[in-house]
Design brief:
It is built from 14 helices and 13 strands. The chain is an alpha/beta fold. Helix 1 packs across helix 14 and helix 11 crosses helix 13.
């Protein structure tokens, strides 16, 4: 029996669910799979099979502060990384599948040195652009392309993952270029064609790069009975829905705030995934629903809405678009990242980024001539989680057969 180790920052949120579901499918095919993530209050709520935790919350908080002050990420957590690698010695993985690594929970030099010394084949799924930049997960908002030849004078040192005042982007770009060099033993996977194209322009261009779209659980995300309209007294409203894990400029929070001032009261904006800080920014006519980990509750909200609005300015391949389609909800999105790759002419529209007038016109057009809900559901079947994760299993088989 071959053993696989998956490492991701979390065992919750979108990337956490992807990691765990790949593991689930791989076990069905006879692989022994371990998943590893940071130790956090939320992650400890779940008791998953073969789940390893890296470090402790206090060590991570110290590492976060050190990274914030120095601008260096992945340089700390030495003792906890050493303890984790001892567990890896016991597991003896035949393949390591990396996901999100930029959350100050593991020492990157120690991890990649270990992989190199043991010549373990690696699959690395890029959920954003961080692996080939000196600082940021995304750079669309600032229009920066320094990452192609070497980062410096970063315009985003105060954006997550942020630094207090030191710009270490040049150092970190060069460090990554050398550190992430795993000759003949790494395959890059991206969920979108957009990110694959960027990766081919980066210092990863000589590695095999494969596109495997994110998928969702179509047994959960489907039209369901929902009393959401009744509970919120929205019987005659046209509901515009937005869902995000963290709301801010990147996800278009300001766009929804502007829509709330420009649309008449026949519309109702509902935002899911908010918190107390976001609530302080919202006008009274936006319904705010705080972050939920209950996917069935999300499916009920999707089902009750009329249109999913995703004014994201930086995106890889947002599963929220797919979740909406699976519940019969059409999508309108900014033309950014892989967001537009999810929809087709029968289930949604895209408009140029930051063009609020075009967005409002698109919303009105869709309201006047609605898309068929069945067409939205049909489109979502292209992103069945089980089918997409089978592509990962086939990749495991291919690499381990060599």
């Amino acid at each position: 029996m071959k053993t696989i180790l998956e490492i991701n920052a979390t065992n919750y949120s979108s990337t956490g669910h992807i990691t765990l579901n790949i593991a689930k499918e791989a076990r069905k095919k006879g692989y022994e799979v371990y998943t590893a993530c940071k130790t956090a209050k939320v992650s400890l709520r779940f008791n998953y099979e073969n789940q390893l935790y890296i470090g402790n919350r206090y060590d991570r908080l110290v590492s976060q502060e050190l990274a914030y002050v120095t601008g260096l990420r992945g340089h700390f957590n030495i003792l906890n990384t050493r303890a984790f690698l001892k567990k890896v010695d016991e597991i003896k993985p035949d393949l390591i599948h990396l996901h999100v690594l930029h959350d100050t929970f593991i020492n990157l030099s120690m991890l990649f040195d270990y992989i190199n010394r043991h010549a373990i084949p690696v699959i690395w799924t890029f959920h954003d652009c961080w692996a080939f930049t000196g600082q940021c997960p995304y750079f669309d908002i600032v229009g920066c392309d320094k990452w192609k030849k070497g980062c410096h004078h970063c315009p985003q040192i105060h954006v997550e993952p942020k630094s207090l005042f030191l710009d270490t982007s040049r150092f970190m770009w060069n460090k990554k270029r050398k550190l992430f060099n795993l000759p003949q033993q790494m395959t890059i996977v991206t969920p979108s064609r957009w990110l694959a194209d960027l990766t081919r322009e980066s210092f990863f261009k000589n590695y095999p790069i494969k596109v495997i779209n994110n998928g969702i659980n179509l047994d959960v995300f489907k039209p369901v009975h929902s009393d959401f309209r009744e509970r919120y007294n929205l019987k005659d409203k046209y509901i515009l829905l937005g869902v995000a894990n963290e709301w801010g400029e990147r996800k278009g929070l300001d766009v929804f705030i502007e829509l709330a001032t420009r649309l008449d009261d026949s519309y109702q904006i509902v935002l899911v995934g908010t918190n107390d800080n976001v609530d302080k920014q919202l006008p009274a006519n936006i319904i705010s629903i705080h972050k939920t980990y209950d996917q069935k509750e999300l499916a009920e909200i999707y089902t009750a809405a009329d249109l999913f609005v995703n004014p994201t300015r930086e995106e890889n391949f947002p599963t929220v678009n797919i979740e909406a389609l699976a519940c019969g909800l059409p999508v309108i999105t900014f033309e950014t990242g892989g967001s537009v790759e999810i929809i087709d002419e029968y289930c949604g529209q895209s408009v140029k980024i930051n063009d609020i007038d075009a967005l409002i016109k698109g919303i009105a057009d869709i309201r006047n001539i609605p898309y068929e809900r069945d067409a939205c559901i049909r489109r979502s079947k292209n992103f069945n989680m089980s089918d997409k994760f089978q592509e990962y299993i086939a990749l495991y088989d291919e690499i381990l057969a060599k």
